[in-house]
Design goal:
By secondary structure, this protein is of the alpha+beta class. The protein is built from 11 helices and 4 strands. It has a 4-stranded antiparallel beta sheet with strand order 2-3-1-4. A hairpin with a 4-residue loop joins strand 2 and strand 3. The two termini are 20 Å apart.
Length: 338
């Protein structure tokens, strides 16, 4: 430990320099980044609209389920691209593509593997940039068992508010599309089952009529039914009961399709609509985080440099540091001079 301290005091300016440089670079980077504005929308989800999976698990709240669904959708390229084209984000990016991006943005896009948008970029490149921007700058969190908050950050406050509104609208369309597809699948399934069951009902009726024609004595009011006729009638009654049950399920599925076109069919209502933010997002917090990050990086770099300089320092300052073959030749030592 003493040797490390000696090396530190000998090269203290060289060792402190990385800390200062990293701190200045991190704070300078934070200062040069454009101010961002955060637009927020809060949605209230009705517990009655939970899917069957959530109903089977009583620990899943409507907000948690909706948050998980929206986060999964944000990871898809088609959803994010649809949001970008639905709101003002795509037009804003195309308008800004005429200007050459700054060096920091170019480097960050290169590190993330995102292409830099230009005026000559095709729709695929635009969709990739939209997906990366929306996925990176959108946060979704639950503020209670039935309320979720959708936040979107962007340098332009008008674009931030419009994109947040587009997120809500696209999410509503996705939920309605899922509900319609599920209802249509139920209609198709029950329609096929109903046709098949109708054939079974007709066959059961024909079997009862055929038996009564072969045994006319069973038609008289006071006749005692035999076991075969009783079994045939029971089969016919079961077929009719199942047929009526399928009719009710088919009607319910058709009602779900009709209900999907009604207001609020997505299962949520907007509590707080996105408004245009009038002040930028916490800049002091961003600068503080950048300063802490730069300080930590500088300390690690200083520690690595100190270890390297100590390992390269071959000077001998004490008798005990001499090799064993030379330790007996020490005539004297000079104390440390101030």
């Amino acid at each position: 430990m003493l040797r490390y301290l000696e090396v530190f005091y000998r090269y203290r300016l060289l060792l402190i320099a990385p800390v200062v440089i990293a701190l200045i670079a991190s704070v300078g980077f934070a200062l040069t980044r454009p101010r961002t504005y955060e637009a927020t929308a809060q949605l209230w989800f009705d517990p009655a609209t939970l899917t069957q999976t959530a109903q089977l698990n009583g620990y899943v709240s409507p907000a948690d389920q909706a948050t998980a669904e929206l986060k999964e959708l944000l990871k898809t390229r088609s959803f994010s691209a649809s949001v970008g084209h639905r709101g003002p984000l795509a037009a804003s990016m195309l308008a800004g593509s005429n200007q050459s991006p700054d060096l920091v943005t170019t480097i960050l896009n290169l590190v993330r593997g995102v292409p830099t948008l230009s005026a000559s970029s095709n729709s695929q490149v635009l969709n990739d940039v939209l997906a990366d921007t929306i996925n990176r700058d959108t946060t979704v969190m639950s503020n209670g068992p039935e309320i979720i908050a959708i936040n979107f950050d962007y340098p332009n406050p008008l674009v931030a508010a419009g994109t947040a509104q587009a997120l809500v609208g696209q999410f509503s369309d996705e939920l309605l599309g899922i509900r319609r597809s599920q209802a249509q699948a139920s209609v198709d399934f029950y329609t096929g089952q109903l046709q098949s069951q109708q054939t079974q009902v007709a066959a059961a009726d024909a079997a009862v009529n055929k038996y009564l024609q072969a045994h006319p004595d069973q038609r008289s009011p006071g006749a005692l039914e035999d076991t075969q006729l009783t079994a045939l009638k029971r089969t016919d009654d079961l077929a009719r009961t199942h047929y009526e049950d399928l009719v009710q399920k088919l009607d319910a599925a058709k009602l779900d399709i009709a209900a999907a076109d009604q207001p609020g069919a997505a299962g949520f209502r907007v509590i707080d609509s996105p408004t245009v933010p009038y002040r930028p997002k916490g800049f002091v917090k961003l600068a503080a985080l950048a300063a802490v990050g730069g300080l930590v990086a500088g300390l690690f770099l200083m520690l690595a440099t100190l270890l390297l300089l100590t390992a390269l320092d071959t000077s001998v300052r004490r008798p005990q540091e001499l090799p064993e073959e030379l330790a007996q030749r020490v005539v004297g030592s000079i104390p440390r001079l101030r």
